[in-house]
Amino acid sequence: MEKLGKATKTEKFLLLLTISFLVLLLIVFFAGQQRGADGSYTVETERAATWKVERHLVNINTADAQELQTLQGIGEVLAQRIIERRESAGPYSSVEDLLEVSGIGPAKLEGFRWQVVIEEEE
Length: 122
Known about the structure:
Layout: H1 9-31, E1 33-35, E2 41-43, H2 46-50, E3 58-59, H3 65-68, H4 76-89, H5 106-112, E4 116-117
Parallel strand pairs: 3-4
Antiparallel strand pairs: 1-2
């Protein structure tokens, strides 16, 4: 087995640089925290606000054509077909009912399933 030699100047420099970087990260991380009365920490940074994702759900029982067109893969024609099916057969009782609409198959439905909600009209 070969013995490990002493670290070269370059290796020492890289180690020092890495340690300095980690210390700097810790300082930045803890500088953005606030300690609560119970001892817990809350991180509040401007960047945290950009991580919030807003999800707009479309109620297919009340949406107009324009709102339906915000669904992935739904254009003007399919939006109108969704409305026509709703008007002729009554409100949708499940997302799978959209498969009854000509032009919407399982693959297309999976593309926007996460964007829809089923609620009866009030």
